[in-house]
Amino acid sequence: MQIPLTFPRDVGIFSADKNVASEPRGAAPAAQGGEVRVALLVSEENAVVGPRVTAFVMAGGEGTRLRPFTRDCPKPALPFARRYRIIDFVLSNLYNSMIRSVYVLLQYRPESLLKHLAENWGFARSAPGELLEAVLPRGDGPRGGFKGTADAVRQNLHLVEAGRPDAVAVFAADHVYRMDVRQMLAFHEARAADATVAAVPVPVGEASAFGVICADTAGRILGFQEKPDAPAPMPGKPGYAFASMGNYLFRPEVLREVLEAAAARGEYDFGQHVLPRMIGTHRVYAYDFSRNLIPGVKPHEERAYWRDVGTVEAYRSAHRDLRGPQPRFSLDNAEWPIYPGERPGTAAARRRGVISRAVRGAGVGAQGAALRPRRGRSGAPVYMAAQPVGRDAPSVAEQAREVSGN
Predict the structure, then answer these.
(1) Above 70 in pLDDT, residue 24?
(2) 243 forms bridges with which residues in the sheet?
(3) Antiparallel, parallel or unpaired: β 195-203 and 240-250
(4) Phi and psi at residue 209, in whole multiples of 5°?
(5) Cβ atoms within 10 Å, residue 323
(6) 238: Cα separation from own chain's centroid
(7) Within 10 A of 342 (CB to CB), how many other CB atoms are there?
(8) Which pLDDT score is estimated for 357?
């Protein structure tokens, strides 16, 4: 079952000059080492005239390691920084990358995501060339639900045929990051790859928590290691390993071929089954996410920030990365916004003083200020804090005290 939702049309990251090749505003020059920056032709209606991409966003996971938070909703539906859901990061990255044909594949407790997409991503009649559709399994019939990530895409290959794209993107919905997908697409096309896997360098000591990619100096993948005890280091970077981000690009005809072959073998997952088999028969490359350039990123931010928030501690840690006047990852970037939380206008800010009897809205910043206790109906304090509050401070949840005063 498909549910159409239209993207907002009020933001364009690329130039809208007709028949003019353009790049992201404020983008740095293309990285060295064989990297290619995409040149896009953009029409007056903001429709990309260039490589067409159909994207599948994998949002059906249960997220058992995040229990009890995911007891009633899937991991991509969890709130992040109060004004977002985790899925908003991948949807914003696709939208900002001018990829406007997107299918969100749902399964586990989809109600909250359906509601969020409908209310915040424009639930309406889809517009040609710019659409978002939520896709549910077909039910309890002979095909049943999705048996894995690869099976979910295989059951919806008719959507690829309808769009006739030049590439198919299969992206995870449960990570916090910014990414210009068109730069990954340029790498994919320059290598004449059948499949490309986005990979992020992580310290070898931390790589055992991820699927690790073994690649040569040109990026061609030689093997995969699933959460290895001794991760293989990157070529030329012995202290780092390539961790798979769960984001893939495929040639459409190759995708159909490998998915049908996997189904015949009873294999249903990209990371465990499809991609490891492809490396012996197809051209499969790793795209180095650390080379991805995003306009508007501040000097103090962590370069190529990416977090898998698959555990309670990782979820909390990613929130801590937003703190301080110079956070590792800033949500305020007008040149690469995260939707739907960011709205036009200037946020309020206060540098010193006391904030009393007030409710802080999204985007409000305060430094050197204190939140004065407020009394509830029972007379017990609701908030107790004598420290900075706002975007650069502990969350309200961390500062809150139970109304009982315990």
Answers:
(1) no
(2) 200, 212
(3) antiparallel
(4) -85, -5
(5) 16
(6) 28
(7) 20
(8) 52
Structure tokens at 379: 């007379």
Pair of tokens at residue 216: 């040569």
What is d(CA 271, CA 350) in angstroms, rounded to the nearest whole number?
Answer: 47
Please state the three-class secondary structure of the chain as a single string.
CEEEECCCCCCCCCCCCCCCEECCCCCCCCCCCCCCCCCEEECCCCCEECCCEEEEEECCCCCHHHCCCCCCCCHHHCEECCCEECHHHHHHHHHHCCCCEEEEECCCCCHHHHHHHHHHCCCCCCECCEEEEEECCCCCCCCCCCCCHHHHHHCCHHHHHHHCCCEEEEEECCEEECCCHHHHHHHHHHCCCCEEEEEEEEEHHHHHHCEEEEECCCCEEEEEEECCCCCCCECCECCEEEEEEEEEEECHHHHHHHHHHHHHHCCCCHHHHHHHHHCCCCCEEEEEHHHCCCCCCCCCCCCCCEEECCCHHHHHHHHHCCCCCCCCCCCCCCCCCCCCCCCCCCCCEECCEEECCCCCCCCCEECCEEECCCECCCCCECECCCCCCCCCCCCHHHHECCCCCC
Greatest C-alpha distance within the chain:
70
Distances 66 to 63, 86, 89, 106, 316 between C-alpha atoms, Å: 6, 13, 18, 18, 11
pLDDT(266) > 70? yes
**Interatomic CA distance for residues 360 and 199, integer angstroms:** 37
Residue 245's contacts (CB-CB under 8 Å, 6 or more residues apart) are 172, 175, 197, 198, 199, 200, 289, 306
How far is Cα of residue 128 from the mean position of the Cα atoms in its chain?
24
Percent of the chain clearing pLDDT 70 (strictly above): 65
Residue 18 binned pLDDT confidence (cut-offs 50, 70, 90): very low
Q: What percent of the chain has pLDDT over 90?
A: 34
Domains, the chain, ordered by start:
2-291 (3.90.550.10), 348-406 (no CATH)
Q: Residues near 356 by Cβ (< 8 Å), separated by ≥ 6?
A: 371, 372, 374
User: Which tokens in the block code for residue 280?
Assistant: 């012996």
Burial class (CB in 10 A: 0-12, 13-18, 19+), 107: middle
Name, in order, each residue with C-beta under 8 angstroms of 74's C-beta and a sequence gap of 6 or more.
59, 60, 61, 62, 63, 106, 107, 108, 109, 110, 112, 113
Q: What's the pTM?
A: 0.75
Average pLDDT over residues 167-186: 95
